[in-house]
Structures are given as C-alpha cells and as structure tokens.
Amino acid sequence: MTESLFVEAVRSAGARVFRVGGCVRDAFRGAAAHDMDYVLTGMKETRFCALFPRAEKIGKAFPVYHVYIDGRRTEVSFARKEVKTGAGYRGFDVTFDPAVTIEEDLYRRDTTMNAMAQELPEERLVDPYGGRADIAAGIIRAVSAHFTEDPVRALRAARQAAALGFMVEAGTLAYMRSCAEELQKEPSERTMGELRRALEVSRPSVFFRVLDAAGLLDVTFPEIAALRGKTQPTEFHPEGDAFEHTMSIVDAVAAATDDVITRFTGLAHDIGKGETPAEMLPHHYGHEKAGLDVLAAWNRRMTLPHTWMKAASFVIREHMRAPRLTHVGKIADLLLGVGRSGLSMEQFTAVIRADHGTLPDYLMRGAEYLAAMLCVTGRDAPAHLVGAQIGAWLREERIRTLRKILAERRADPFYSAENMAVLSRRIADIKAGRNVSEHDPVEVKSGADVPQNEK
Contact, 436 vs 427, CB < 8 A? Predict the structure, then answer.
C-alpha cells in the first residue's frame, strides 16, 4: 500500500492523518528519515481496524499499529493525551479518542523538534511549539515541564545533542537536572539503551558532557564522573584530567571505527583512575587493576553486554603495556590475547593509537603476525604429548614462529631505522594532505614490499 492510498482511505473515513516525530524533524534537517510514523485524529480504533484488517497491533497501554506503507513497516497511532499518575515511564494515564487534537498530542512530546507534524496529503506543517526555528538555530528545547515526567528524556536530550551537534538550552538543562532522583529508579536497561545509542554517534563525548552540565553524570555513569579532577602528568596528558583524557579518547576511537564495542573500550580504558587516592596524584599506579574492579561494579549496577565486558577487560588490563613490550613471548601473548578478546587487531590498535599516539611494529603488523602464529595448531603437536603438554608446546611453537618473523624483518635493510623514519614522515604527509616530498628517498635494498598497513 502506498502512502497516498493510506491517506485517501483515512480521509475518506472523515479522519485526518499526520506524519510526526523524527521523520518530520529529519526532513527539516535535510537528513534521511530512518522511520516513518503517523498519527490519526478523528477516528475510532474499531473503524481503523475495519479499514486496515492486516494492521498488527503492538501497543498495550494505548493502541499502536504496524502498517506496511511504501514497502516498509510504519507505526500508526491515535492522537492521545497523558496525565502523570505514578513513577517512571509507565506512570501515566492515557486518553485517546477521536476528539484529541494533533496539538494536544504534540504537547506531550519531549522536545520542540520532535513536536512537529505534517498533515497529509498537503504536507501542511503543524508546529505549535517552534520546533522548526529551534532546528535552524541548533537548539534542543523542552516543549514544557511535561519533559520531566519521563526521566529518561534527560538521557535522550543529551544523546540528541551528541548526534545532531545541537546545544541544550538552559531551561531544558534545568528540567534535566530535576530528573536526577527519578532516574535512579529507572530500569537499568533504559539507561543502557541510551548509552548504546550515544556510542553510535560521531562524538560520544558530547553525551557525557551534557549530562555533566545537567548534574546527571554522577547519577547515570558514576564511573565516568569519578574521573573529573583526577590530574595526570602533564608531559603525557596535556589535555587535562582523566575525564578530559577519556573524552578525547572516546571521540578519537569513534573517528577510527564505527564498532560500538571498541568505542566502549575507549570510554572504559582508564576508569580505574577514578579510584586513585588524592595523595598519589598526578600518578595512577595500578589503575589497570583498579579499572577491572570498577568495570565489574559497573556491570553489577546495570548489566553490560558480555561482549563489552570481555573486550573492555582486555583493553583495561593491557592498554598501558601493549605498545611497550620487548620480550617476544610477551608480544606473542598480547597478540594471541587480542585474538581472544572479541576485538579485531584493527579495533584494538585504534584504542592504543588514540591513547599513545603511535604504534610499534608488532601492533602495526599485528594481524599478520597473529595469523602466522595461528597457523600452528594443536594438531601439529608431537604424538606423545597429552593434555596441558600440548598447550605448553603450542605456545612455545607460536612464540618461535613470531621470533623468526621478527628476526627476518629486523635483518631486512628496508626496515632500517633511517628508512622507517622517512616512511613515517611520508605517511604523515599523506594523511595531512601534503605533497609527498621527493627528498630522503627510501632505498629498498632487499626487495621487500612496503607493509600493507603503511601504504
């Protein structure tokens, strides 16, 4: 069924139909709409069901239907009013009947940019609360004090600020601040859902900064809030305290990968610094071990996905030593550990590069080295070995494989310190958009290929 046929059927029954919510907002932002939602006024539910018998009802507290329009599943609901009667997002009395107007329906929504509608078929804009002007100004503004009736709207506003690059205006920050007490009583999965969505945007740091500005960071993510004021050695961290460092890292990792799990590990890599006693500052000795304890407490508080826990535990434990190893056995163990962490080598090194700025050869070519080690399997073990003996043999053989590869690489004149320095300068020039200099040509004395990740 096309949208025009859907609208014609509704209008023929004496009712009105409106596009609402994100699809209207995105149209005025010049962005593609992810979902299409409709609201009907002047129609009873029984009449709707007679017109669209194949519609699938999904709402319980109030009727919402899935209807396939223009080849995709859309949501169709009836204009409704809400009155707060209890705690949380379920503490509402809902009224829906043909007499409820579109303006009344829009009034219950969270922010002005989400409280617009387009009446069909003319696409006449209904914007009683100034959403279009706020979009043009890049402002997130609550429609009314009803904003506070669902405390998770505060998280949503922070996440929208991060996703859209908008500013949350002062009155809305005040509304967000008033949600603090009730937010602590909300199901943790709602907070988890907003965290996941916040980590999907290009600058996740904005989400946490807005929560901090609204006085909600301590309530929602105390592990991150604890990093504020935890000073660090300025020669290594000129950006400031551990909170500022973490915000820069999560954004840098987000710029390197779309993977939400990797972005979470960037967010969590230094959470142990929040436990550093004041007398130890600006040093954070043992923050890797403390970080594992903080992560475990975070998980008890809101149940993090197992894949997040597994990857973050590895990064927290290894991020300080990962680019500084010299012993071949320890390098082998690190690379094999990456293989078991749930992260790819590229994802792991995105965090390490963001944190340390550079990578050693064994991480730059880590995927290649790991693949070579994994070619040795337990099936290759001598027949007389059993049980734990096979595991010990396997580790030693993989270390031997890596040692051979590293020795061959060091022996190749192409990989001399001088050539590598020139190559690094050229890579930096290319990444910065500068013309590659013709000076300091790299002389390939052995015929070795340029590493794939350095091309």
Answer: no
Closest CA to 153 of 121, 180, 128: 180
Minimal CA–CA distance to 320: which of 267, 365, 270, 246?
Answer: 270
pLDDT for 408 equals 85
Q: What pLDDT sits at residue 420?
A: 54
Q: Is 170 exposed, middle or buried (0-12, 13-18, 19+ CB in 10 A)?
A: exposed
Task: Indicate the pTM of the whole model.
Answer: 0.82
Each residue's pLDDT tens digit, 22-72: 899 999 988 887 788 999 999 998 999 999 999 999 867 678 899 999 988
256-302 tens-digit pLDDT: 999 999 999 999 999 999 988 888 888 788 899 999 999 999 999 99
Tokens representing 164? 């859209």
Cis peptide before 282 (omega within 30 of 0): yes
Degrees (nearest 5) of the Cα angle 264, 319, 218? 45
Both tokens of residue 80?
């409704």
C-alpha 112/C-alpha 140 separation (Å) is: 7
> Is the separation of the CB atoms in 338 and 345 below 8 Å?
yes
Helix, strand, coil distribution of the chain in percent, nearest 5: 55, 10, 35
Inter-residue long-range contacts of 360-368, CB under 8 Å, 24+ positions, other chains counted:
360/323, 360/324, 360/325, 361/409, 361/415, 362/325, 362/331, 362/334, 362/335, 362/406, 363/322, 363/323, 364/451, 364/453, 364/454, 365/451, 365/453, 366/335, 366/338, 368/451, 368/452
Q: Which amino acid is at 402?
A: L
What the block records as the tokens of 123 is 């696409």
The alpha carbon of 360 is separated from its chain's Cα centroid by a whole number of angstroms, namely 27
The label of the residue with tokens 């995709």 reads 72
CB atoms within 10 A of CB 278: 8
**Of residues 331, 341, 230, 244, the one with CA closest to residue 280:** 230
Nearest to 134 by CA among 168, 110, 101, 159: 168
Alpha helices in 357-452 (DSSP H): 361-364, 366-374, 388-411, 417-431
β strands within 55-152, DSSP E: 56-57, 64-69, 72-78, 80-84, 92-96, 117-120, 124-126, 139-140
Three-point CA angle 32, 38, 41, nearest 5°: 150
DSSP code, position 35: -
